[in-house]
Specification:
By secondary structure, this protein is α+β, with helices and mostly antiparallel strands. The protein has helices spanning 2-6, 11-20, 37-40, 67-76, 78-84, and strands at residues 44-51, 54-62, 91-95, 99-103. A 4-stranded mixed β-sheet has the order 2-1-4-3, covered by helices on one side.
């Protein structure tokens, strides 16, 4: 697969390597690799947690987590507690798959 992907940029080298590895046909006649959407799907995300607009933590969460669960995880994080000072959040802003901003 790597040789097929490199072939457009370094055709002579890839053709030689293709021949050395024992493939019968020319590399130019070989089928291009098929895209697999399942392989490209992310299982986990890194979510940035901000307190008053400043990055205070990062969370590793499942890609299919709901906004409510994300808010709960962010508020339960020890590093966030240090910067909120035990105060209740005035507003919690969630940007899907990116960040949680807690306004105190």
């Amino acid at each position: 697969t790597a040789l097929l992907l490199l072939f457009p940029m370094v055709p002579h080298f890839c053709e030689e390597m293709w021949e050395i590895t024992g493939h019968g046909e020319q590399i130019a006649a070989a089928r291009w690799p098929a895209f697999d959407p399942e392989a490209a799907r992310e299982d986990e995300l890194t979510i940035v947690v901000q307190v008053n607009g400043k990055v205070r933590s990062r969370l590793q969460v499942a890609a299919d987590i709901s906004d409510e669960e994300l808010k709960e995880l962010a508020m339960a994080d020890e590093r966030v507690h240090k910067f909120t000072g035990g105060k209740a959040a005035k507003k919690i802003i969630v940007v899907k798959r990116k960040l949680v901003n807690i306004v105190v």
